[in-house]
Every structure is written in structure tokens, then in C-alpha cells.
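Q: C-alpha cells for this one, please.
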Amino acid sequence: MNISVVLFAAIFFISLLLTMVGLGGGLIFSPLFVILGFGKSAAASASLFLNLVAAGSAAYAYARKKMVDFSLSIPLIVSSAIAAPVGSWLNVRIALGPFLLIMAAVLAAAAIRMMFSPSGQEGGSNLAPWKKMTGGIGIGACIGLLGGLLGIGGGVFVVPLLIYVLKTPTKIAAASSTFIVCFSSLTGFLGYASMEAVNWWFILPAAAASFAGGQAGARIMSTRMKGKTVRVLFSLVLFAMCVRLLHQYFA
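A: Here is the predicted structure, written as C-alpha cells:
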């Protein structure tokens, strides 16, 4: 079977699984593309675009079901969208070795987060509006910077921070995260596109697979969050990719 067909199928299923927990797929796309031989900037830019498509697809479905907290999302969107191009700028100026180590550390942290995913708050947030806004701005700036640097949307950190820091219910946090990472992914991608050529011949067909996966994942999550077994299995995949990146660094 043609490797591109396998890759596009993988993009579909990655988008499906990750949009169920508030992610767009960039967490896997970027290290996957690096492992497949993409340059770090090309991997990050393609990952951000696919993350944008998958997250946008899921966010639209969640918004129609009134699962997105827009008042909470907007401060994070503004600060993350501003910070993401700074991360893109840093990416093209950092050596491959440190990039691989940072990526491996992020994957390990994300794997631990997925394996021990919190049950979250069941009620609504009781934080004062100004605390939600200032907390959201700070979280968004950190997420945008890291997302732009590594080519991930940052949703893997948005969700637990929304749950723990801003006391957001789990499903609302996951749904709102897809909406938030759309904007940091967009500005991060535009940062790369302004500096280097984009391989549209690969990105556009891959985006179609990512869009379909995002729609499927949103439909599944809107009725039932993914179970512990899927979280554990996916965390094992992240650990495996972390080990592979470390091997690439020390080889």
C-alpha cells in the first residue's frame, strides 16, 4: 500500500482521537513528521495547519451543541495568538538537538497528563470574572509560545489548566480548548509561512483527512468522553514517540 495512503489514514485517526479530548492532533503530527524525515520547521508548520483544521472542525461541532465557553476562551485566544508567532520565530533559530529534547519532554509530560487525566470539576466555575480573564491571558500566552515553538496547538496543557486553575467542567474545558487552539495554530502557521515555503501538495490532502477526523471525534465526545483505556493506550504511544525522539537525538 502507498505510504501516503497510510499516512493520511493515520492523520484521520489521530485527529479523531485527539479532538475527543480537546486537542487538534498537533501533539502527534509534529513529532511524527520529524520522525518521518521532515525538517523541524516544515514539520511544525504542517502540524500547525492540520491542527488548525482538525480543531476548527471539532470546535464548530461543539459550538453548535453549546459546549464552548466563549467568555472564557477569548482572553486565551488573544494572548495565545500573539505569543504563537514568537514561538515560530524561535523555532527557526534553535538547533535541532535542543528542539528534539524539548519535544521529547513535552511528549512525556503529555503522556503523563493523559494517563492520569483528572476527572475534573462537575459544577460551574465560581471564580470572579476578572480572575478568569487574567488567568486566561497568562495561560494563553504560555500555550501560544510553546505551541508555536513545537508546532502543536497547546491543547494538551490548556485542558488541565482550565480544569485546575480556572475550575472549568471537564467537557467544557475540552470543547473550549479546540476553539482556543484554532487561533494559536493559525497565527503560528502564518509565522512559518511568512518565513519559509509551504508544501501545499502534502498539506491540503492531509487537511481533508484531518477535517474528517475532527468531525468524527467531536461527534463521539459530545455524547461521551473517551474512556480510561483509550487514554492509557494513547499515552503509551506518546511515550514511544518520546523514546524515538531521544534515540534520534543521541544517535
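A few notes: The chain has ten helices and no strands. The chain has a mean pLDDT of 81.
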